[in-house]
Specification:
The structure is a homodimer of 200-residue chains. With 200 residues, the first copy, chain A, is α+β, with helices and mostly antiparallel strands. Chain A contains ten helices and four strands. In chain A, strand 3 and strand 4 form a beta hairpin. Chain A is globular. Chains A and B meet through helix 4 and helix 10 of A and helix 3, helix 4 and helix 10 of B.
Amino acid sequence: MSAPVEFYFDLSSPYGYLAAQKIDALAAKYGRTVDWRPILLGVMFKATGMAPLTEVPMKGEYSKRDFPRSARFHGLSFRMPSRFPIPTQAAARIVLWLKEQDRARAVRVAKAMFHAYFVDDIDISNPDAAAAIAAREGVDPAAARAAVDDPVVKDALKREVEKALARGVFGSPFVIVDDEPFWGLDRFDQIDRWLASGGF
Amino acid sequence: MSAPVEFYFDLSSPYGYLAAQKIDALAAKYGRTVDWRPILLGVMFKATGMAPLTEVPMKGEYSKRDFPRSARFHGLSFRMPSRFPIPTQAAARIVLWLKEQDRARAVRVAKAMFHAYFVDDIDISNPDAAAAIAAREGVDPAAARAAVDDPVVKDALKREVEKALARGVFGSPFVIVDDEPFWGLDRFDQIDRWLASGGF
C-alpha cells in the first residue's frame, strides 16, 4: 500500500483552490489517496520573506489576470474575492478538527470553503461564516464554531504548519509524493509522470 | 500576417533556458515567428522587490531540485552552473547588437549562450567568454567583444529593459502573444491554446 499523496493548501490561495479540484482525481488515477493538509501561508511568508502575490509590484497585476485565465484554462469557476488575501485560521481549524473525526467530510468541507470564497465571494475568515459553510456538509455549526476557539485545535494547526515548514513546504498548493516536493498547480503534469513512473 | 510572439529572457534564467528550446516550435505550430528579446532580470528584481530564486529561503532549496527535474521532464540537458546567478549584460548586448544585423544569427547565438552557461558551465558574464561563444556561430569575436563596451549598444539594451518593464515584463521567460502576457515555462500549455484559439 503506497503512502498517501500529501496535499498542502491555504484556503485563501487561488492556485490552491484550482488544484483542490484536481488532486483527488490525479492521485486516484494511480490508486493513491490524498492527505489534505491545511496550512497558513502567512506563516510561510514570514519564513521565506515572500509576500502575497497580489501585493508584489507588477507580479500582482499579472496575477489578477492569470488567476481567472488559469481557471478558464482548466474549465473551473472563479471569481476574484472582494477581500484578498484573508487570514484562514478559522476555516483551517474547522477542517483540521473535522479531519480527526471524519477525513472524507473534512475534504468535502475544505472544498466547500474554497468554493464559498472563490466562487460565492463569502469571507471565510469570519468564524461564523466558516462554521456556516461546514454546516452545508452536515457538520453541527455550533461545534464547528467552537472548534475555531478551541486551544487544542489552535495548537494542532500551529503544529501542522510547523511540520509543513520542517518538510520544506513554503507555498500553496504544495504536493509531496513519496518525499518528492512539487510546488504549484503548474507541477501537476510532473506529478502525473512521477506517479506513473515512480520518479524521473 | 500575425505579429511575432514576443519572447523575453535573461540568459542567466534556468527556466528561460528551458523555454528557449521550445518557443520557436510552439510559435511555428501556428505559423507565428518569435521576436527574441534579451532582458536583465537584475533590473526587474529592483522594480518588483523580488530576488533571484535560489536566494529565497526554502524556495531556493526547492528551485535547485526543480531546475534539473524540469529539464529531465522536458528531455533537455541541464547542469547547475558553478556560479549562479550571473550578470548577463555582456552576453545580452552581443545578442542585441547581432539582432540589428541578422536576427536568425542572434537567435542562434542566444541559444549558444544558454547552452554554454547551463550545459557547459561557461561563465558568460565574462565578455571575452561571451564573445568566444558568439564566434562559434560565425560572428567576428573582436567585433562582438567591442559591442559589449559600445555605448550605443549599452544604451539600446537599457532601453529594451525599460520598454519591457513598461510592457509589464517582470520575469524570465516572459511571453507576450497579441498583448496577452504569460509568465514562465509553466504557461506554455496556455500559450499553445491561446495561439490555437485566439484567446480563451
